[in-house]
Amino acid sequence: MQFFRRAKITDGWLALAFHPDGVSAAYVKRPVAGLPVVSFCAWYPGKAGVPELEKIGKELRTSTYRCSTLLGGREYQLLSVEAPNVPPDELRTAIRWRLKDMLDFHVDDATIDVLDVPVEPNAPVRTHNMFAVAARNSVVRERMAAFGDAKIDVTVIDIPEMAQRNIAALVEPEGRGLAMLSFGDDGGLLTVSYRGELYLSRRIDIPVAQLADADLDRRLALFDKITLELQRSLDHFDRQYHYINMSKLVLAPFQAEGLAAYLGSNLYLPVETLEFGTALDIGSVPDLADLAMQQRYFLTIGAALRHEEVKL
Questions:
Q1: Which of 29, 113, 261, 274 has its CA 20 to 30 A from that of 141?
Q2: DSSP labels for 152-212?
């Protein structure tokens, strides 16, 4: 199983994501012209497992779609590594060797894939970085076995960073980089993309539920922590990728009263909140006009926005 498998051009993807309290599904089509179309979203409450998947497979007729699934933030590690100077067919073996002292489990127990980070065009030879994705074999086997038992043909395993990158690419200004920040049950996720490619990813250990705290002092303390992490990460990005001109920070939909204004007052970048209706055609799913629904389906829709990747 590859995390970034080459996809053929068809009508779209049906993405299925596990949550602590259920399974979300989203189907997105990419027309030749115009905004990507969210054809439908569905939520199946309860513990995410085989019974729910069997129900989903029957109700959504998943055999008629190309299906993908999305790992949770705690089910894999995303690591930045220097690209080894080896032929393409030896790349994963070389990356596996480099990861042996970086993982919090034995490398022999890992399913590994790689994602290239483009180098500066026309620049002198310099360090070339890549992202390595590593998940425990047991996690991948259990997930695929659950879909197999439910007779759902899942051909791609994706990760939140790539799902968020897919949405960021829809609102990224031409020729400039874009930072995007989301929060969910696994905490915060900061990504920086440029020309549709992922360049930076950072996790922030603050679950979205904490941001809805009614106590102003506790909420402001969290805002301070988020701001500091963003400042450090963006400064690091500026030093490493000085040739990329950053445009803005876009906040994904989530409940955090006052955060956008707070970040706007403390960061050098303009701060905006994502407007779903300007990036996606959501006319078929009226519920997506609601902020809570946008937050629930944000990464699932991002995974369903998958398009052809460059095979390494």
A1: 29
A2: --EEEEE-HHHHHHHHHHHHPPTTSEEEEEEEETTEEEEEEEETTEEEEEEEE---HHHHT
Distance (Å, whole) CA 43 – CA 45: 6
The two beta strands, 177-184 and 187-194, are antiparallel
Question: What pLDDT is attached to residue 311?
Answer: 39
Which distant-in-sequence residues (6+ apart) come within 8 Å of 294 by Cβ?
253, 276, 288
Distance, C-alpha 30 to centroid of its chain: 18
Q: How far apart are CA 6 and CA 24, in angstroms?
A: 24
pLDDT tens, 148-180?
A: 999 999 999 999 999 999 999 999 999 999 999
Query: Model-level pTM?
Result: 0.91
Query: How would you classify residue 8: left for phi > 0, otherwise alpha for psi between -120 and 50, otherwise beta?
Result: beta
For residue 310, the model assigns a pLDDT of 41
The whole-angstrom distance between residue 148's C-alpha and the CA centroid of its chain comes to 24
User: Is residue 153 within 8 Å of 163, Cβ to Cβ?
Assistant: no
What backbone torsions phi and psi does residue 152 show, to the nearest 5 degrees?
-105, 120
Do the bridges between strand 177-184 and strand 129-136 make them parallel or antiparallel, or are there none, so unpaired?
unpaired
What the block records as the tokens of 293 is: 């629904």
Separation of alpha carbons 269 and 249, rounded Å: 6
Element (H, E) at 35: none
The alpha carbon of 260 is separated from its chain's Cα centroid by a whole number of angstroms, namely 21
Q: What is the pLDDT of residues 85-119, one digit of tens each?
A: 888 888 888 999 999 889 989 999 999 999 999 98
CB 94 within 8 A of CB 86: yes
Long-range residue pairs from 21-26, CB within 8 A, at least 24 positions apart, any chain = 21/45, 21/46, 21/47, 22/46, 22/47, 22/48, 22/52, 23/48, 23/52, 23/53, 23/56, 24/296, 24/297, 24/300, 25/56, 25/60, 25/300, 26/297, 26/300, 26/301, 26/303, 26/304
Concatenated DSSP letters for 84-116?
PSS-GGGHHHHHHHHHTTTSSS-GGGEEEEEEE
